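RECORD TYPE: inverse folding
INPUT: structure tokens
STRUCTURE:
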């Protein structure tokens, strides 16, 4: 009637040469179904017996459980030796008469060869070997290129040519993954990196001119356009920053507060900003704690009303021509729009979404909406109680 209450073991059968950790609990039960009283025992032990197919013992280990209580707890590690066919756990107690008596046992088969285990072991060995070979080829290709670039070109340029041919039909990612072995991929990548510090002949489309959409300008009449506040965080992006700042412009009647937060760049970013400083509400160049901190600090300098628009623009992005005028006019024509975009830490999405729905807002939340069922239930209740189901979940870009 005694039984194992809990035992953490991998899938049986156990395998020879492998080490196993036996962690669990044993509950001794008497013949009438009641739990055997611990007060009757003077000592108790767990005897692990590893047996051959004929029943003879290969090895026997004894583990004494001295913890009080009716449930036995055990935690020990044992390796399965060669020749073992079964592993038996014997739970025994010594009562006041001094003899060890069995209270229960459990048997686990031991296999000398398991096909699935063998396949996993061979696969792991093959992957490790391929990684070693790939690393060696990577180092050898870089070293060989320094000694004789022509020789490396001769042996590896054919691989790049084949890659380009396959990439034209199947795409570069499929050509890279399926066209070469792991070792050859490492060697070809080393060849590409060593070849003048470029990315070699990777498949790339030729540059194409950027064609901007022509945005219509809605008629707003005598409506006052909302003000736009834009924050641009930047760090060592002087090559792009000028074009980014020049794109933040509007037509007649638009009000723009532009703030640039530079993280202490060491390139020509400060000179680029100073050349356009007369258009800025605020700018600074000093070390910060990253992009998010720079944006938050930038918005601390704003002076907005409840109907104004706030945005941030990365230092290598652009506003399309006419985008600022179109957005401000559209918001002026639709004052009923009252939306909330949630892109905070994932653990806070459900609570903020529920609060925004109860406040009557239209909500867009980046995935995930919630991390557990409790969060989903919180959002569901908010929709039911408020009658507001204007909720959309998706990516934040």
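DESIGNED SEQUENCE:
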């Amino acid at each position: 009637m005694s039984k194992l209450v809990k035992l953490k073991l991998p899938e049986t059968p156990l395998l020879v040469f492998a080490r196993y950790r036996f962690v669990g609990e044993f509950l001794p039960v008497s013949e009438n179904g009641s739990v055997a009283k611990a007060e009757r025992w003077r000592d108790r032990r767990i005897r692990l017996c590893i047996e051959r197919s004929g029943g003879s013992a290969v090895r026997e280990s004894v583990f004494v459980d001295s913890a009080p209580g009716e449930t036995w707890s055990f935690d020990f590690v044992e390796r399965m030796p060669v020749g073992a066919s079964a592993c038996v756990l014997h739970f025994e107690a010594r009562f006041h008469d001094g003899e060890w008596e069995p209270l229960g046992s459990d048997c686990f088969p031991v296999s000398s060869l398991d096909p699935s285990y063998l396949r996993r072991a061979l696969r792991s060995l093959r992957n490790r070997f391929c990684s070693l070979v790939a690393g060696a080829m990577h180092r050898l290709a870089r070293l060989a290129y320094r000694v004789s670039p022509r020789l490396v070109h001769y042996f590896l340029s054919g691989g790049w040519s084949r890659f380009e041919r396959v990439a034209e039909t199947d795409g570069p990612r499929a050509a890279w993954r399926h066209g070469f072995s792991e070792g050859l991929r490492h060697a070809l990548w080393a060849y590409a990196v060593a070849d003048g510090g470029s990315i070699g002949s990777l498949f790339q489309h030729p540059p194409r001119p950027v064609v901007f959409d022509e945005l219509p300008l809605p008629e707003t009449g005598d409506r006052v356009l909302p003000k736009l506040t834009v924050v641009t965080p930047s760090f060592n992006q002087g090559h792009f920053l000028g074009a980014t700042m020049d794109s933040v412009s509007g037509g007649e009647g638009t009000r723009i507060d532009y703030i640039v937060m530079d993280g202490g760049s060491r390139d020509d970013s400060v000179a680029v900003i100073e050349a356009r400083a007369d258009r800025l509400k605020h700018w600074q160049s000093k070390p910060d704690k990253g992009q998010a901190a720079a944006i938050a600090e930038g918005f601390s300098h704003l002076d907005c009303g409840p109907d104004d628009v706030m945005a941030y623009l990365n230092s290598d992005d652009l506003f399309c021509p006419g985008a600022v005028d179109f957005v401000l006019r559209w918001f002026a024509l639709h004052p009923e729009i009252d939306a909330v975009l949630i892109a905070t830490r994932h653990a806070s999405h459900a609570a903020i979404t529920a609060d925004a729905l109860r406040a009557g807002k239209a909500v867009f939340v980046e995935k995930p909406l919630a991390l557990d069922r409790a969060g989903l239930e919180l959002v569901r209740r908010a929709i039911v109680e408020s009658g507001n189901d204007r909720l959309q979940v998706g990516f934040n870009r």
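NOTES: The chain is about 35% helix and 25% strand.
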